[in-house]
Design a protein that fits this description.
Layout lengths: L19 H4 L20 E2 L8 H5 L3 H17 L3 H4 L4 E6 L4 H9 L6 H7 L1 H12 L5 E4 L5 H15 L4 E8 L5 H8 L24 E7 L2 H6 L6 E10 L12 H11 L3 H6 L2 E3 L8 H14 L9 E4 L2 H4 L6 H15 L1 E2 L19 E2 L5 E2 L9 E7 L4 E9 L17 E6 L2 H16 L6 H10 L8 E6 L3 H11 L12 E6 L6 H11 L7 H6 L11 H21 L6 E4 L3 H8 L5 H15 L6 E6 L3 H7 L7 E8 L2 E6 L1 H13 L7 E4 L12 H11 L10 E3 L15 H9 L4 H9 L5 E6 L6 H8 L4 E4 L6 H14 L6 H4 L18 E2 L4 H4 L11 E3 L6 E4 L12 E3 L2 E2 L3 H15 L9 E7 L12 E5 L9 E7 L4 E9 L12 H7 L2 E3 L1 H10 L2 E3 L9 E4 L4 E7 L15 H9 L14 E11 L6 E11 L3 E9 L5 E12 L3 H8 L1 E7 L12 E4 ...
Parallel strand pairs: 2-3, 2-4, 7-8, 7-12, 8-10, 16-17, 16-23, 17-22, 23-24, 43-44, 43-45, 45-46, 46-47, 47-48, 51-67, 58-59, 58-60, 60-61, 61-62, 63-66, 68-69, 68-71, 69-70
Antiparallel strand pairs: 1-25, 4-5, 6-13, 9-11, 12-13, 14-15, 18-20, 18-21, 19-20, 26-27, 27-31, 28-29, 28-35, 30-33, 30-38, 31-32, 32-33, 34-36, 36-37, 37-39, 38-41, 39-40, 40-41, 42-49, 48-49, 50-51, 50-53, 52-54, 52-56, 52-66, 54-55, 55-57, 64-65, 71-72
């Protein structure tokens, strides 16, 4: 632009208003302010890149934004990454003078000024924010010297560097023109050009044209810049600043005198004068200023130079870009260094010799009018000066020299394997733009060297905080360009910045230097040349199978690989090792020194090499639980050596047994699916084969020195994180070789509570990836560090992959030795958000799309504001909780829909949107409530039809969610049957009761939020229904919203009613709406229907809808989660604690003498300790207790001739707390405990007076047991010891409780006395040879055990009922026990146990009792967790009892029937419906009796009797279905010749000779029409699916064939119980008459098997009983045990029992009666209320209601429970005696809130 003589004038300005007096001031019109040299894209800013919130960004001065982005550009150009500049002593020196943004904001938006306005406009923050964002710690300041500001800032920066105030500095300036006031003022001062153009040194100049811009330079000492390979533009030689003072008048007039003085400071020698070749003049284009400046330059420089130097060239950048005011100085500097780089002096526009305002010849100056070559004969290169003057008189000048690049030897070429182009960004858009821009620069030839590009991309660009990362391996610029171009079109995935990096040690790698160090350390143990072995060919080496060779080699390589990765800056967050890998893991974690690690690897490997024999087998694709079932048969011969994953393990043991195990698995049914591999190892590690060397390993390794951990370390011996003694004892390493490798558990521990974990295998090949993936799933990344034959490539590849996954990589170490100077590419591409400078507030005048409250913050903005002060949302103030107005969650739902509808381009229909929202925190209305905003983030996700949103203020997040657009979306339930729902919802709650309950939970609703209709509740399916009528005051605005908040809030109000009996005063809040869709516009009157699909203790889930009055769904809600506060589990979590114990260990100190004074016990512990003690201990027997109490401690010691306790003893062991008091009376127990405490008190008093320096250890006996069966003084002595320890810090106490007096515990006690100091372990428990440390822990909530029983484990007398999880499909079968109260209540019934049940479908007959009773009117079933009682139709069983009038059946008979009844294991049915199975052998295995019933109805009742060979046509879409086989077989026996048709278009042809036709479902009207049109057909039988009404009017088809007779069969009518009782005896006789057998009726079956929650059925759920070819059956009883259906029995989680009696005292009022209701509701069958008075009539009515509702028997008896005689009399001699069964049963008592058993 400069060289091609163009003038900047961009970004059209809107016309600014001016005041009248400004337009007519002094008779001259003001200058036109509309033509500045303006900067394009002024307010585009990537606020996320700099970590600035959107709200703060809105109020930031655009000048601040420009400065931030230019600061990054300056660092980028210098090749200094942000992370490298972070924390440096870098200064920031800025010049700026315009405050247009602040002035415009105050004038235009005074009401919208908030806390971000101050920091957004302050001049100081312009510099300070740069220091804050980049973490610079040097001086940071903004100065205003008007137009000289930026060069004065440069001067101050140079001084600060020279003085040591900072090591480098950013300096420059910025100017943005946003407001007309300054224009007007400058116009009136006649400083502004009439055409807006600066014409320096021209006679046409009449003022300057304003310009915008931002310029920054980075200053650094030259020596340091050269050391750092920085890109250097130029060298600042000298700077100077002065002031005009009062040398001229007015203040704005330039002073020639002071300008000359300033120049003389710089050019004080002849060398200075001859060296300068160009002066960048201030040259604003004012008639006064230009001549003065030219004169001062001429006098001091141009005329003072030698004659041979020629005229001095001057120019001014203002002719090109206008006068940029506070930026102009640095703009001139940048112009000069660009001219130096291009060796070109650019022309000054609008100047010519003819129109010059100065005499250039007399001044010895030259102003070029065309571009010319900048010729320099000076060895130092080109040099120039820059003038910069402020209109207040502050002058600045800078002298700059060209940086002459000295020729350096070419940098070492990067190996081709190191050629990686590294790119990263904070957003996907930035990333793609960087890739695209770099490809374009390569194509344009601006990048010529691949090596400098790669080095710059990796080492000289910022990467640390960027979540989008990519590494391209390349071989040339052309190759890279091709790869970059292709990458632009690909989807980029962000890295997970919180990933945990875990190194898993398993194999080999290479890093020679570290291996040499390890080799030297090994020389003290074994002669081993590791490097030579690495270089040799492994297949030719036989030594590598020897553990003493292989293991050190493996260890060395593992350590070397980790050292290399750490060298490249890659450090793990955690490490773990598989078996031998633990040694390297322990060292690389920092715990073990290299010397100790080498010691471990030597002894471990050398001792293992002494063991040979055995084999190891890897088994995969088989659950370990199954392996464990097999192992007992190999006990002592085969061990489980490693738990690799849930599906993989390693076995180890005797060779023959391993071979046999291998063979057995191979030959098993699942053998072909297993992976079985014999490991090539010399011995069976981790098995009993290691036992001979376990003790030797322990002794040889001994104790190791523990060092501070550098990273978390997990043990595969324990499966958990490092414990105190892990890895640092020989005992641990002995366990390491013997015990199974807990790899699976260690991996789980490492990944616990982490969503993103990256595993890197430290080994020679990918060996553990499968195990990790099987353990954690495929969402976790596993990378190899080395691969066979390509170890170098793999190491480099893993570095690149880890970088892409978000791991920090030190690229400078990666490129060490290949450094080069940085180049300008790649350039970061900011993901700018475009926002009108001042429109963000001006646009708040009108809402978005006529929405009452939502307003888009600028055109295309993804941020929306909410005007909560609007009158249209005044109703929100009526929604309160505990007296405080809060926004309902329903309002947030509307905001999510409204903002997406406004933002979406192109527009989408509301019915296509599915919203999910999570409610985070309440928004409280207060006087200073923060502004509410909705952020759509990220907006570009609309391309994938999904958009996330957040509703927040500057201080809190209130809700967040997702809106997904899917065209053609339909509701899961399109219609609901309102009549059926009302029939089920029999409980009634008035509107007054509803709002009373809601008020008890804290909610308060104004009139607009209150619905006037009552609510109806159905307990069985936990559903509620109510009518909602929109209040009149809301009707006008109902359709201004997508879903009016009041409407949705009313839906939420009736949510608690769905859990009916669980209604309580515990607060309930909506936590989440899983799915909400508005399908149709709301109506004035609607129906709300809700169903609780899951009810837990802490929350419950709801599905439901808003429908119109006809039941058409308008709005569908699914998975609305309601959180219940104050749950039992929450109370337990927060407030319940208990004493727990954890294992602890210390390094054992041997042979330490214990010099102690023993107060010896009675159990014998002190006696057992004698052999371990110092030979001089003294014992005080408990027989001296009375003497001690009476005479004191001194008396006892004198008797024992102990002269000085302090000198003779290091410890006091007090063991008198073990006396057995179990059999004593309570008073004696109390006296004994008090006496023991008094003795101890006296002893402590004595020792305190002596200032005893040793330890006082109190040893108790079995005082920490959870079950007390041994009472002793230790219980109280423990408490007293703790009190003494707390109150007497000068003494040292330790409390030790012994679990027993066994040899094992005595030995452990010695270990405690020798190695466990009192100050570190104030309390310990010795039990079963272990040392435990007590700790207070949270008490976990007890959980109900899940039953693992199935129906075959139940006794015959235990009755159960089968259940299905879907009322319309027999699936997920389970059983639940029921009361065994089924009796033969009629004389003609028989009692039997079911054996087999045929599985039918709901189109044939209802499959559940729910389906039978309510049909298809249960909604959102697939979301529920409830079960439905199964309905059996076809079944068989064994007779267990018969009525006295039943003669043809006896106990033990096997019978079959068709009779709809609940599928219980025991049924009682009329004898008439049964038939002995032996009489109908074909039904013995398959009791499909209903098929026979249907055949009877069709062939016997509907169709006329068949004459010989008459033809019958049957239409069925499945010709060989089981039903068809039955019908054909029976029809043939009856003389029919059956023709089957399967296609509607072939029906007429197929039935052409038929006289009768049968149509089986499914069929359509067309089929009936075709059948009725066949001439020969006289009778047509239409079998209808399960429904209650005829779907077709058969008279419609009579017109085509008047002779046809239609016979309609409804399955629902055929299967009526009354009809079956009458018909079944006739049907059985009819079947017997045909002599059918199994050959005639051969049907295929499959057994329904329930296994691991999966129904293994050969019949698909969608298959119909009409058309299935294979009949599924449930087998409950069979001689073939493998054919039984494995149906689990669901446990009963009942708090109370039906057959027990519960007594509630004070049960007629308040909490007492609530307790009565609670017991009844939770299953209590019999309740007695004891109260001083009888219940009044109202209370008696409530008792009756509770009794009726829950089926409990409740009696109230007068009794004062404080008088025991009355209690006895009431229960035993009550005039109203208890029922007999109550007296036989157990009795439990309860007072309100407490339960306890009583005799």
């Amino acid at each position: 632009m400069l060289a091609h003589t163009s003038h900047t004038k961009t970004r059209a300005r809107t016309k600014h208003s001016t005041h009248d007096e400004e337009q007519t001031g002094g008779g001259e019109s003001a200058r036109d302010p509309r033509t500045p040299a303006a900067r394009s894209a002024l307010n585009e800013f990537d606020h996320k890149f700099f970590g600035i919130t959107d709200a703060e960004s809105i109020n930031m001065d655009p000048q601040h934004k420009l400065l931030l982005q230019c600061s990054y550009r300056a660092l980028e150009d210098a090749g200094i990454p942000m992370e490298k500049a972070n924390g440096t002593q870098t200064g920031v020196f800025l010049g700026l003078m315009n405050r247009d943004f602040e002035l415009a904001n105050v004038r235009n938006n005074p009401k919208h000024i908030d806390h971000t306005h101050g920091t957004g406009t302050a001049m100081s923050i312009a510099a300070n924010r740069i220091s804050y964002i980049f973490n610079f710690t040097g001086p940071s300041l903004s100065i205003d010297c008007a137009c000289s500001s930026s060069l004065v800032a440069l001067h101050l920066a140079c001084q600060a560097i020279k003085q040591g105030d900072c090591e480098m500095a950013l300096c420059g300036g910025v100017t943005c023109i946003l407001e007309p006031s300054i224009f007007v003022a400058l116009s009136k001062a006649k400083m502004i050009s009439s055409d807006g153009i600066s014409k320096p040194f021209s006679s046409k100049a009449d003022g300057y044209g304003r310009g915008e811009g931002c310029g920054l330079v980075l200053l650094k000492p030259l020596k340091k810049a050269l050391e750092d390979h920085d890109h250097i533009w130029g060298i600042i030689s000298k700077t100077a600043v002065n002031q005009d003072g009062h040398s001229v008048s007015p203040i704005t007039k330039p002073s020639m005198v002071q300008q000359e003085e300033l120049l003389r400071k710089i050019y004080s020698t002849e060398t200075d004068l001859t060296g300068v070749q160009y002066i960048e003049a201030h040259g604003t284009g004012t008639p006064v200023g230009d001549p003065i400046e030219a004169g001062s330059i001429s006098k001091v420089i141009a005329k003072a130079r030698p004659q041979m130097s020629g005229p001095l060239i001057i120019g001014s950048v203002k002719s090109n870009i206008g006068h940029t005011e506070s930026v102009t100085g640095v703009a001139g500097l940048i112009k000069v260094i660009l001219m130096m780089q291009h060796e070109t002096i650019v022309p000054s526009l609008f100047y010519s010799m003819e129109n010059s305002s100065i005499d250039v010849e007399s001044l010895n100056m030259k102003i070029p009018t065309t571009a010319e070559k900048w010729i320099s004969d000076c060895r130092a290169g080109r040099s120039a000066g820059i003038n910069n003057f402020g209109f207040g008189g502050t002058n600045a000048h800078t002298h700059v020299r060209q940086y002459v690049q000295s020729k350096k030897p070419k940098a070492q070429l990067i190996s081709k394997s190191h050629q990686y182009f590294v790119v990263s960004a904070t957003s996907e858009k930035s990333m793609k733009n960087i890739i695209e821009d770099t490809a374009k620069q390569i194509s344009a030839g601006k990048i010529s060297e691949l090596q400098t590009l790669l080095y710059t991309s990796a080492c000289r660009r910022s990467h640390l905080k960027h979540k989008y990362r990519k590494v391209f391996q390349t071989s040339s610029l052309a190759d890279l360009q091709e790869k970059l171009t292709a990458a632009v079109e690909k989807k980029l995935v962000p890295s997970k910045t919180i990933s945990k990096l875990v190194f898993v040690f398993c194999g080999n790698g290479v890093h020679i230097r570290e291996i040499m160090k390890i080799e030297r350390l090994l020389q003290s143990y074994i002669c081993l040349n590791l490097i030579e072995m690495l270089r040799s060919e492994p297949e030719k080496s036989t030594e590598l199978s020897d553990p003493k060779i292989a293991q050190p080699l493996l260890f060395a390589i593992q350590v070397a690989v980790v050292k290399l990765l750490k060298h490249w800056g890659i450090s793990p967050d955690a490490v773990l090792g598989h078996s031998i890998g633990e040694v390297a893991a322990a060292h690389c974690s920092g715990l073990l020194s290299l010397e100790d690690a080498v010691k471990v690897i030597h002894y471990r490997s050398s001792l293992q090499s002494t063991v040979t024999g055995g084999k190891m087998l890897v088994v995969s694709n088989m659950a370990i639980s199954e392996i464990l079932k097999i192992l007992p048969s190999y006990s002592g011969r085969v061990c489980l050596a490693a738990y690799n994953s849930p599906q993989s393990c390693t076995l180890s043991g005797n060779a023959d047994d391993i071979d046999r195990f291998h063979q057995n698995l191979s030959n098993s049914a699942s053998g072909k699916d297993l992976f079985l591999h014999i490991l090539d190892v010399p011995a069976a590690y981790h098995s009993h084969m290691m036992d001979p060397i376990v003790s030797r390993v322990k002794e040889s390794i001994g104790s190791l020195q523990a060092h501070d951990l550098e990273t978390e370390l997990f043990s595969t011996v324990t499966g958990i994180s490092l414990s105190s003694s892990d890895f640092i004892t020989g005992e641990y390493w002995a366990r390491n070789i013997r015990e199974p490798v807990q790899f699976e558990q260690a991996v789980k521990s490492a990944a616990k509570n982490k969503k993103s974990v990256i595993f890197v295998e430290i080994g020679p090949r990918r060996s553990l990836q499968r195990y990790i993936t099987e353990t954690l799933g495929k969402d976790f990344t596993v990378l190899p560090s080395v691969q066979p034959d390509k170890d170098h490539e793999t190491m480099l590849a893993v570095v690149c992959k880890l970088f892409e996954l978000g791991v920090k990589v030190d690229w400078e170490m990666f490129y060490k030795g290949f450094e080069s100077e940085s180049i300008p590419y790649p350039r970061y591409q900011f993901d700018d958000v475009k926002r009108d400078v001042l429109a963000s507030r001006l646009q708040l005048i009108g809402p978005t799309g006529n929405h009452p409250v939502v307003t888009q913050m600028g055109t295309g903005s993804s941020v929306f504001s909410c005007d909560l002060s609007s009158e249209s949302v005044a109703f929100l103030q009526d929604h309160k909780h505990s007296g405080v107005a809060i926004i309902p969650g329903a309002f947030y739902t509307e905001l999510g829909l409204a903002t997406l509808m406004a933002y979406a381009k192109p527009k989408v229909p509301l019915s296509s949107l599915q919203l999910s929202i999570t409610f985070q925190s309440p928004y409280v209305f207060t006087r200073n409530a923060p502004d509410l905003k909705v952020h759509l983030d990220p907006p570009d996700h609309l391309a994938s039809n999904t958009c996330n949103f957040k509703i927040q203020s500057t201080s809190a997040l209130y809700a967040f969610g997702t809106v997904e657009a899917k065209p053609g979306r339909t509701p899961e339930e399109q219609f609901i049957s309102l009549d059926c729902i009302y029939k089920r919802c029999t409980f009634h709650m008035t509107t007054e009761e509803l709002y009373k309950h809601l008020s008890q939970t804290g909610f308060e609703y104004g009139s607009v939020f209150r619905n006037k209709a009552d609510v109806y509740y159905g307990e069985q399916f936990r559903e509620a229904i109510s009518v909602f009528k929109v209040p009149k005051e809301l009707l006008p605005q109902l359709h201004d919203y997508h879903l009016h908040p009041v409407v949705l809030d009313y839906v939420m109000q009736i949510v608690p009613v769905t859990i009916g009996h669980d209604l309580s005063a515990r607060p309930q809040f909506p936590a989440k709406i899983g799915s909400l869709t508005v399908f149709e516009p709301l109506e004035e009157e609607m129906v709300v229907y809700l169903r609780a699909v899951h009810v837990g203790e802490e929350d419950f889930d709801i599905c439901g809808c808003l429908s119109n009055k006809q039941g058409r769904v308008l709005v569908e809600l699914r998975h609305v989660k309601i959180r219940i506060l104050g749950s039992r589990s929450q109370v337990v979590k927060e407030y319940f604690f208990h004493n727990g114990f954890s294992l602890t260990s210390e390094v054992v100190t041997f042979n330490t003498p214990i010099k102690a004074l023993f107060f010896s016990d009675q159990v014998g512990i002190s006696k057992a300790l004698q052999q371990y003690l110092d030979p001089t201990p003294r014992y005080v027997s408990s027989s001296n207790s009375i003497a001690l109490l009476e005479g004191g401690v001194e008396l006892i010691l004198s008797k024992l001739k102990i002269s000085s306790v302090t000198k003779n003893f290091q410890e006091i062991l007090f063991m008198w707390g073990d006396a057995d008091l179990t059999t004593l009376e309570s008073e004696k127990v109390l006296n004994s405990m008090a006496g023991c405490c008094e003795i101890f008190r006296k002893l402590i008093g004595y020792l305190r007076a002596l200032h005893f320096p040793g330890d006082i250890r109190v040893i108790t006996y079995r005082s920490s047991e959870s079950i007390v069966d041994y009472i002793n003084p230790g219980f109280v002595l423990s408490g007293m010891t703790r009190a003494c320890a707390a109150e007497l810090p000068e003494l040292s106490f330790q409390l030790i409780d012994m679990g027993s007096g066994t040899f094992e515990d005595i030995k452990t006690l010695i270990q405690v006395l020798r190695s466990y100091p009192c100050d570190k372990y104030p309390e310990l428990l010795v039990k079963e040879g272990k040392i435990l440390k007590p700790e207070i822990t949270h008490t976990p909530l007890p959980t109900m055990a899940i039953s693992s029983r199935n129906v075959h484990m139940l006794h015959n007398e235990e009755v159960f009922i089968l259940q299905t999880s879907d009322p319309y499909v027999m699936t997920n079968l389970s059983a639940t026990q029921m009361d065994n109260s089924i009796e033969l209540n009629q004389e003609k019934n028989i009692d039997l146990h079911l054996s087999k049940i045929c599985v039918h479908s709901s189109d044939y007959f209802p499959v559940s009792i729910s389906d039978l009773n309510y049909g298809q009117t249960l909604y959102w079933n697939k979301h529920t967790t409830e079960n439905h009682k199964l309905l059996a139709v076809d079944f068989s069983g064994t007779v267990t009892a018969v009525g006295k009038d039943v003669s043809k059946f006896k106990v033990g008979d096997h019978v079959v029937t068709c009779y709809p009844v609940a599928a219980t294991s025991k049924v009682v049915l009329p004898a008439a419906v049964w038939c002995k199975a032996k009489n109908l052998s074909f039904l013995n295995d398959i009791p499909c009796v209903s098929y026979m019933v249907l055949a009877w109805e069709i062939l016997h009742k509907a169709l006329p009797e068949a004459k010989q060979q008459r033809k019958l046509g049957i239409f069925s879409i499945v010709p060989d279905s089981a039903l068809m086989n039955v019908l054909i077989a029976i029809a043939n026996r009856l003389g029919w010749n059956v023709k089957v048709s399967t296609q509607a278009d072939q029906l007429s042809c197929d039935f052409s000779e038929a006289v009768g036709a049968v149509l089986l479902p499914p069929y359509y009207l067309k089929n009936i029409e075709l059948a009725s049109s066949v001439r020969g057909i006289k009778d047509i039988v239409l079998v209808y699916e399960n429904q209650t009404e005829f779907p077709f009017n058969t008279t419609t088809f009579k017109g085509t064939n008047e002779e046809v007779h239609f016979h309609t069969l409804l399955m629902s009518q055929i299967m009526q119980k009354g009809s079956l009782q009458i018909q079944m005896p006739h049907i059985y006789r009819w079947l017997k008459s045909m002599h059918l057998d199994r050959k005639a009726l051969s049907l295929d079956t499959t057994v329904v098997v329930k296994f691991q929650d999966i129904d293994l059925m050969s019949v698909k759920e969608s298959e119909s009983y009409f058309t299935c070819q294979i009949l599924p059956i449930i087998v409950l009883n069979s001689d073939a045990k493998n054919q039984l259906s494995d149906i689990p029995v669901m446990p009963k989680h009942r708090l109370f029992h039906k057959n027990l009696v519960y007594i509630v005292t004070g049960g007629l009022t308040g909490l007492g009666f609530e307790t009565v209701k609670f017991i009844a509701q939770k299953g209590g069958g019999n309740i007695v209320i004891l109260s001083r008075s009888n219940p009044n009539p109202q209370m008696q009515q409530e008792i009756c209601q509770v009794s009726s509702r829950w089926g409990s028997t409740i009696k109230s008896l007068p009794c004062d429970v404080s008088v025991s005689e009355q209690v006895d009399q009431t229960i035993v001699q009550s005039p109203t005696p208890l029922p007999a069964e109550w007296e036989r049963s157990s009795c439990r008592t309860t007072s309100p809130g407490r339960y306890a058993p009583c005799d």
